[in-house]
Amino acid sequence: MEELHALRKMTLTQLTTSLLSNPDVIRMHGSYKVADNVLIRWDVQGYYYEDGGTSTSIYRTTYPIMRHTAQCDVIDNYGNDKFVLRNAHKRFAYPTDELAVQSMIARLDWRLRYANAAVRKAEHCISTLSVAETRSE
Prior knowledge:
This protein is of the alpha+beta class. The protein is 42% helix and 30% strand. It contains three helices and five strands.
């Protein structure tokens, strides 16, 4: 959670520059540049192991734009056409790294809020069961 707060203190340009210069960032689906008419998506993938260990990878994926329609760009999503609306609030991919990083942070923030809500609900259920158990004794 501290890492997310630290990310929010950085400007998007600082964060994007830091991510792009990081050799641990995994670049997928080619090394297209923004000038190559592509859309960009940043993702984080976490792995959890039985021994309690974890690892996290950051991915920067560029998708070539195959064609344009009046409302969207059609990208090549590993051999499948994917329609990405230009004016949507949430998009699958973005034209700049800054927008794509901002989207990744928003998705991570949502995941964190959702996970915290699930923890609170589970804790409430456990406390309710504990109270019911003490009453039955």
